[in-house]
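Example record

Each entry pairs one chain with its bound ligand, flavin mononucleotide.
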Amino acid sequence: MFNSLFQLGSLTVPNRVLLSPLAGVSDAPFRRICQEMGAGLTYIEMLSAAGMPHENRKTGELLYRDPAEPILGAQMTGATPEIMARGAEILMQRDLPIETLDINMGCPVKKIVSRGCGSAIVKDPKRAGDILRTTREAVSVPVTAKIRIGFTQHDHTVEAVCRELALAGTEMLTIHGRTRDDGYSAPVRYDRIQEGFAAADAAAVDGRFGKSATGTCLISLPPGPWPN
Ligand SMILES: Cc1cc2nc3c(=O)[nH]c(=O)nc-3n(C[C@H](O)[C@H](O)[C@H](O)COP(=O)(O)O)c2cc1C
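Structure tokens for the complex follow.
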């Protein structure tokens, strides 16, 4: 199951083992170890779209690709379609290069959320879709999104967000089966993950997008129905 090719839009990933972007962890040496152990797609640490026009030292350090890395993705977060698209454009002008871009709509950190980024984006499904659509128009690589099932435990927006992202043409949808308020410890809501994918499937224009779920494990599947 994990050894077959994975199509992410125009990008062929050699297997279905993905290393999620991990802030403070997934630097180039760590990625190289994971690639050598078989990871088909790895990502650089999350970038801030708002920070891209005036790149600081920390961002500069993150923007490094070891020449031996076979495929590399980036992850970025931005509060508005315009900020996100501009940040993505600047990233693409860098000589990294990267093969795919994931939009972070799940980070729970206060500093990120207070700026309308990360998991704050799932409060507003339409904005989530607009951010993805505008970013797709700005770059030539496949664009994907990673979301949480909602912001608070009482307000699960997962279905509406998945619908908007599918309509906006995401190439892959990763659902972290917790809300922002759940942090990393609450039980994972596999039922809500399933409902999110069902909503996306119903809305997807051509029905073709990858699916992956995270929360205590990570599963990636090719386009098609999510198994029961
Ligand atoms: C230290 C750490 C850093 C993380 N950084 C990111 C990140 O930059 N982007 C992201 O999408 N998820 C990030 N995550 C979330 C994980 O990718 C994963 O979705 C989450 O931990 C849920 O899975 P788990 O219950 O197995 O931990 C991070 C998680 C940890 C523990």
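The helical segments are 28-36, 57-62, 81-93, 110-113, 125-138, 158-167, 190-203.
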